[in-house]
User: Which sequence fits this backbone?
């Protein structure tokens, strides 16, 4: 690749790519994001390669490995161009048929198209699919069109035009003014106004200054940063470069968590290609602006995503937070002014520069502008990444885009904001999603995870899960967080195992209050949200665990029992065969029974019992060790809330 | 230290020669080359880099990516992120632990498997997820785990 030395050079390259592109060219785009890879995308790619080679069509048909377009539920995703036919759930066995019918003859393979579960109607193109057409996609729309390892794909779609605009037509203060006017707020969780942050780094004394991409996306359930970094790394890099120009930085870091190996690989590759083209280095595009970036891998610590801890990690130290008397934007890595933004925030920058602050601020709510990518996961039909304007209601996201709750279950609520957020009960589903609304409900938007939970998830157990998670991830530097979490876990462990005591809730509240007031960093201060929000929104569940020793969701292992309903059992013996404890015994001339004193409540019998029979029943509170199915009638089972 | 390991260590030290803030990146490279960081390696690094051994140990013991004891031939990782959790990750972990006969964080006595739990791999839409030797497997249930582990056990 020849080095570009002027803005014209870039435009010439863009024209050249466009000229050489044949709009009729046959192309298969295959999602090879980590999600689809987990569902076998690599095998699908190989199957295409083999089939195309077998037919000797290497010149006619081009294979493009792309990043994640969002609809992970239906992976592996394959799009056939030029028509844009969208296939889902593709397996290697489907490949010869796709090549023979769709690519060569233009016919559809109906079974691989999206089928509307309600109407049975098939959707052919992306825009016909309800999951996509209720979204407003600017940030992830291009993922399926781009091979993240080919900078030309990004340039062909107008990439680096915002950079050239900033370098040639705007002064640094003008860029900052534009970002301020747009109303963009940080996408990593805090929601701090981005333009204000930029301004404080620009004005801060001290040189050199740094710009940093925070791709230490640790919130469990959130993966939009991974999808952007893996699928469209140049969009993040372009944003970073504009930021560097605006605040006067000449070096930058991309900090990626080590759990995202593909994001590390694609980020490094993107830097390499940008450097070769002269988009990084000295005198970029002849503008006199020098800038370069390096990738730093995280080493597996949730707390490192906190801004001050991340600075420590960049310096090669233990990733613990520092006291925040002075913001990192003024005194960050190596005690120099450091502008740290989240991946998604950076990816928004080229959009704002290209289309203007006015356009950006026309989207969203009064105080939360633009679109936001949410990861819609958990107990919802269409899981994946959804990009919607700020202010869309949770109900619209879950039902219109997510297609509702699977298996006819009832929605209990949504968990947002990761371990710093809370659980919002189903009755608040009409809430518009933006920074301030979710905070007012005791949760927060965080980095944008929306984890849908149904009636099978126990609110108390979920709170315990988050506290357990945070115990594992607390760095231990400050006492309130380190000890407070441990004590909270002890209490919650007791409650979910039926050993809860009177006064437990009061102690939880006291600890939470103390942690909120005295923890060193935001991780500790917000760690209490999952506990407090479940206590506020699901008091009945806490009461059931504490007083009745009963788990209404039948989820807490220590509070449930299994038994075999003799009237429906067909005697197939599957449960007996699969029971690891040998707790299921045949009674002379009768059905099997579960020996309650031996049962460890692993639930395997419940899983293997044929769905048509469902003779294994789950109940809470626990049955007595001497319980046998024949004593059922005496027990009055209607009261126990049986569940098949 | 065997010669091959020493050579790897030399290469890694040379790669980061003189760079600021390199310690974590260096230890990550060491981890991926040698699969664990031994006491011997920490002492050696301390001498050569002129960084106190306590400081290296502190960093290596803080971060989860670095192992301070040897790991098995196959690395099994069960994701315990929230999305996986609400779809049955705990059950998956229980099954995997009972299949391998070890708890998470442990290595089987024959050194075949090391089992770990991880707090979210970012594949939340296809959970529950298990990663075996860098291969991601989505929508895993007890049967699928058995199949995946069975294939590996017959390999080794």
Assistant:
């Amino acid at each position: 690749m020849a080095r570009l030395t002027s803005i014209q050079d870039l435009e010439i390259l863009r024209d050249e790519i466009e000229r050489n592109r044949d709009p009729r060219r046959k192309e298969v785009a295959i999602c090879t994001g980590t999600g689809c890879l987990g569902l076998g995308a690599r095998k699908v790619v190989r199957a295409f390669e083999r089939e195309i080679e077998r037919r000797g069509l290497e010149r006619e048909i081009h294979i493009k490995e792309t990043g994640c377009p969002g609809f992970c539920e239906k992976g592996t995703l394959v799009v056939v161009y030029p028509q844009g036919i969208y296939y889902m759930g593709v397996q290697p066995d489907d490949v010869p048929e796709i090549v023979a019918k769709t690519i060569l003859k233009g016919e559809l393979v109906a079974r691989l198209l999206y089928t509307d579960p309600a109407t049975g109607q098939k959707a052919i193109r992306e825009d016909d699919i309800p999951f996509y057409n209720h979204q407003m996609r600017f940030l992830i729309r291009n993922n399926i069109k781009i091979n993240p390892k080919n900078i030309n794909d990004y340039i062909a779609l107008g990439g680096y035009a915002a950079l050239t605009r900033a370098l040639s037509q705007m002064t640094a203060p003008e860029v900052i003014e534009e970002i301020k006017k747009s109303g963009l707020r940080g996408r990593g969780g805090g929601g701090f106004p981005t333009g204000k942050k930029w301004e404080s780094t620009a004005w801060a004394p001290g040189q050199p200054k740094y710009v940093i991409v925070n791709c230490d996306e640790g919130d469990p359930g959130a993966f939009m940063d991974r999808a952007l970094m893996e699928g469209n790394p140049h969009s993040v890099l372009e944003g970073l470069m504009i930021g560097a120009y605006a605040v006067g930085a000449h070096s930058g870091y991309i900090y990626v968590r080590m759990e995202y190996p593909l994001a590390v690989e694609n980020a490094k590759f993107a830097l390499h290609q940008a450097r070769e083209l002269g988009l990084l280095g000295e005198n970029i595009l002849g503008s006199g602006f020098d800038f370069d970036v390096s990738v730093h891998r995280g080493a597996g610590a949730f707390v490192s995503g906190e801004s001050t801890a991340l600075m420590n990690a960049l310096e090669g130290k233990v990733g613990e937070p520092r006291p925040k008397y002075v913001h990192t934007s003024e005194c960050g890595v190596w005690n120099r002014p450091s502008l740290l933004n989240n991946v998604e925030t950076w990816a928004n920058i080229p959009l704002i520069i290209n289309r203007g602050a006015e356009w950006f601020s026309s989207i969203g709510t009064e105080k939360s502008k633009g679109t936001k990518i949410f990861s819609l996961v958990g107990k919802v039909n269409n899981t994946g990444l959804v990009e919607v304007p700020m202010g869309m209601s949770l109900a619209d996201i879950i039902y219109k885009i997510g297609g509702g709750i699977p298996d006819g279950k009832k929605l209990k609520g949504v968990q947002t904001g990761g371990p710093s957020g809370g659980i919002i009960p189903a009755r608040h589903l009409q809430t518009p999603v933006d920074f301030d609304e979710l905070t007012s409900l005791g949760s927060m938007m965080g980095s944008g995870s929306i984890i849908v939970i149904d009636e099978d998830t126990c609110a108390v157990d979920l709170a315990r899960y988050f506290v357990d998670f945070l115990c594992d991830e607390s760095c231990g530097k400050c006492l309130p967080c380190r000890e407070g979490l441990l004590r909270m876990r002890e209490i919650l462990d007791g409650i979910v195992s039926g050993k809860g005591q009177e006064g437990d809730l009061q102690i939880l509240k006291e600890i939470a209050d103390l942690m909120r007031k005295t923890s060193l960093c935001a991780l500790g201060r917000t760690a209490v949200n999952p506990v407090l929000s479940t206590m506020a929104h699901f008091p009945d569940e806490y009461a059931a665990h504490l007083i009745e020793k009963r788990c209404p969701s039948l989820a807490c292992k220590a509070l449930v029992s299994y038994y075999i309903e003799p009237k429906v059992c067909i005697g197939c013996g599957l449960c007996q065969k699969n029971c690891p404890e040998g707790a299921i015994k045949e009674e002379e001339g009768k059905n099997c029974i579960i020996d309650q004193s031996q049962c460890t409540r692993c639930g395997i019998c419940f899983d293997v019992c044929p769905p048509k029979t469902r003779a294994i029943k789950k109940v809470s509170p626990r049955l007595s060790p001497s319980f046998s199915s024949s004593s059922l009638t005496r027990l009055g089972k209607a009261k126990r809330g049986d569940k098949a | 230290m065997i010669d091959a390991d020493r050579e790897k260590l030399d290469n890694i030290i040379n790669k980061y020669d003189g760079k600021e803030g390199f310690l974590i990146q260096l230890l990550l490279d060491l981890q991926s080359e040698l699969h664990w960081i031994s006491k011997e390696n920490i002492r050696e690094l301390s001498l050569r880099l002129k960084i106190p051994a306590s400081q290296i140990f502190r960093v290596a013991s803080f971060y989860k990516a670095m192992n301070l004891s040897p790991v098995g031939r196959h690395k099994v990782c069960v994701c315990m992120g929230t999305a996986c959790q609400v779809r049955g990750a705990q059950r998956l972990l229980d099954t995997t632990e009972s299949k391998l006969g070890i708890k998470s964080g442990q290595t089987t006595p024959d050194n075949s498997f090391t089992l770990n739990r991880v707090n979210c791999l970012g594949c939340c839409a296809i959970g529950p997820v298990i990663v075996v030797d860098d291969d991601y497997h989505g929508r895993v249930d007890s049967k699928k785990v058995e199949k995946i582990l069975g294939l590996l056990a017959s390999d080794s």
